[in-house]
Design goal:
Blueprint lengths: L1 H11 L4 E3 L3 E2 L14 E2 L2 H9 L3 E7 L2 E6 H9 L3 E3 L5
Parallel strand pairs: 1-6, 2-3
Antiparallel strand pairs: 2-5, 4-5
Length: 89
């Protein structure tokens, strides 16, 4: 699936591509690390980013919100990397 494709892409081109780390209002699951799997934030912090146009995309599934921040993309782009977004549709 797409996870296999991402893995191959990043292994073969580590200096060219980066996977974006999304923000979420849900709590971390066992084994997940903040800033690695997701940026875990409060609902208030998430809503603040939305109000400040801080996301390139965001959505709510059930009671949890997810989004890709502009800052995350800009940070990786500044390193010369193309950012790959893993977005649920």
């Amino acid at each position: 699936g797409k996870g296999t494709l991402y893995k191959l892409l990043f292994e073969r081109h580590p200096d060219s591509f980066a996977l974006s780390v999304s923000h979420t209002t849900r709590g971390p699951r066992p084994g997940e690390a903040d800033g690695v799997d997701y940026h875990f934030v409060t609902k208030e912090a998430f809503d603040d980013l939305v109000s400040k146009d801080g996301f390139v995309e965001h959505a709510t599934f059930g009671s949890n919100s997810y989004g890709t921040s502009k800052a995350t993309i800009e940070e990786q782009s500044a390193k010369g990397k193309l950012v790959v977004l893993d977005i649920e549709m």
